[in-house]
Fold:
Amino acid sequence: METKPTTATNTGANKGGRAGDSRGGSFGGARGGARGGRPNRPAFDRPKPEFDQKILAIRRVTRVVAGGRRMTFSVALAIGDKKGGVGLGTGKALDTALAIGKALKSAKKNMIRLELTKTMSIPFDVSAKFSSSSVMIMPNHGRGLVAGSAVRDMLFLAGIKDVTSKIHSGSKNKLNNGRATLAALSKLPQKRKMIAAAAPAPAVTQ
Structure:
């Protein structure tokens, strides 16, 4: 009996097909799914922070001890919810991340809540002095937020609009300016009571 010789084309096709099927089908798919392409995972949504944050100042401070100099980082951080809540805190640690965490915890403790007008402004002028910084904040009735330095950051985080601020001192210390701003805003409830007490009583008609 005569046997038909196997052609090179068929053998090459079979080998190529097998090789292509085994490597391209199995290994290629496995590599593409595991290494080459990104798996179809659901998007990870980060939780929104409770308060907006703004670092007012970050300094490297040095303390002299018996063994030499010890260097740490000092952070001044302001927080707010843009709904009338604002706070200011400081933190100190060997690492900036730890210092920011301490400052955030301190700012939450020192947070105050303000009663703003319908236009998210303040009803009357307030001023305060802290250390060498002196700040005055006034409503401007529709001119927007006119402020600078740390005062602007504090007012923005509190959500206050249509106010004008003025720094009457030459101090450029952002921490002191921020504390003076917080002290001025803290006077709003007291001044509201004073104005209400000084207002004349309505006349009683018989």
